[in-house]
Amino acid sequence: MPDTAQAGRQGGDISPRVNRLTLTDFRNYSSLSLDLEPGAVVFTGENGAGKTNLLEALSFLTPGRGLRRATYGEVARDGGDGGFAIHAEIEGPFGECSIGTGTTGAGDSDAGRRVRINGAPAKSAEALLEWLRVTWITPSMDGLFTGSSGDRRRFVDRLVLAIDPSHGQRALDYEKAMRGRNRLLTENSRDARWFEAIETQMAETGTAIAAARAELVRLLTAMVARLPNDTPFPQADVVLAGSLEEAIGHRPAVDIEEEFRRRLAEGRERDRAAGRTLDGPHRSDLLVRHRPKNMPAELCSTGEQKALLVGIILSHARLCGEVSGLVPILLLDEIAAHLDAGRRAALFSILEELGCQVFMTGTEPALFSALRGHAQFLAVDHGRVSADTA
Ligand SMILES: Nc1ncnc2c1ncn2[C@@H]1O[C@H](COP(=O)(O)OP(=O)(O)OP(=O)(O)O)[C@@H](O)[C@H]1O
Q1: Which of 44, 240, 282, 376 would give a disulfide with 365, using CB separation of 3.0 to 4.6 Å?
Q2: What is the Å distance from ligand 1's center to 54 Cα?
Q3: Could you tell me the distance, in angstroms and rounded to a whole number, from the CA of residue 109 to the centre of ligand 1?
Q4: How far is the CA of 135 from the centre of ligand 1 (A)?
């Protein structure tokens, strides 16, 4: 990786980076402080050593529950006091910054984790997005194209959030309104005024969610199409299946909002029978096609699906840099083991060109030998991390 992979302006984009990561009572780390280099950082170690835990800690530098979507109780170290702390010294768009996040233990989990930026409490975790963006690929995403639509919606929303920080609040507002409507349905309420108020809110936030997703997909498809034909990460067609998302761009947003509000009102009896809201962007899906093969992603081989996902994440990183000015920090868990030598070399070369900080894990250091001399190698050994100078 080039030494120029620093938090500086490169063609208009900034690549924020973590200079130091400090963990307290996080997973199998009671106390750890790591100095990190820009560019590629490779964590190697045997199974269960704690490599993914390090990526997970880094994934807490963005809003949400991290790359495993674990509860805070799960990530707090067994045998600790129930709290955990992650501290990162970063270099971002406004210079150096210190980010602290974690929970203080029992009773805190409901309130969510706290975030401090330069020592001051942040109003919400969304404030982290002013400093850096983080995206990832983990082995649990291997079933993304074949698994549940909920996982794909969360995936899309995570990609949208990295580009448009207001998406998180939108999603929270929609979910809150929908929970309110679902409560009215299960309580068998006939209070038309309550229904109307809630459905108006759902129509407004739901249409905004659909518009943000549609925009992401439009930009991402264009970016994926820029992947050169000779890379092993295939071009893909990415579309959203959802009544609202499909209408975006073809009709004025006010019409779509009004139609959704009307559909919600007309669907009350059907939804009452189901006990929940059946229509809306919480039911949308992401469809991906392997363009060269003209085949739905779910029918492609496991390796082809992985290559599609890598292509999407790399394209998204480029897009995020162009749209937000911040190239995301990438967390690639066990990626190298799943790619053949040609694909690995292509991945390393695209990462070098992106110039972002990228954290990779693997049990076999040999898989990363092409990066020796260009990357920081760290050996992970059950709660301890040391320089791997092999
Ligand atoms: N809350 C916790 N407290 C203490 N240890 C934990 C906690 N949660 C997980 N662990 C331990 O962390 C280890 C797993 O770490 P991790 O998933 O990072 O391993 P890994 O190096 O990525 O392994 P693999 O190569 O198998 O994916 C296990 O030994 C597990 O018992």
Answers
A1: 44
A2: 10
A3: 21
A4: 20
Give the burial class of 254: count Cβ atoms within 10 A of its Cβ; 0-12 exposed, 13-18 middle, 19 or more buried. Answer: exposed
Query: What is the 8-class DSSP label of residue 227?
Result: S
pLDDT tens-digit map of 11-58: 568 999 999 999 999 999 999 999 999 999 999 999 999 999 999 999
The residues facing 350 across adjacent strands are none
Task: Please list, residue by residue across 196-218, b when 16 or more beta carbons sit within 10 angstroms of its beta carbon and e when fewer do.
Answer: eebbbbbbbbbbbbbbbbbbbbe
In 3-state terms, what secondary structure has residue 43?
Answer: strand
In angstroms and rounded to an integer, the radius of gyration of the C-alpha atoms of the chain is: 22
**Cβ–ligand 1 contact at 50 (below 6 Å):** yes
pTM over 0.95: no
Dist. CA 218–CA 225, nearest whole Å = 11
ipTM: 0.99
Ligand 1 mutation pick, 24, 26, 27, max ligand atoms within 8 A of CB? 27
Angular region, 332: left φ>0, alpha ψ -120 to 50, beta rest = beta
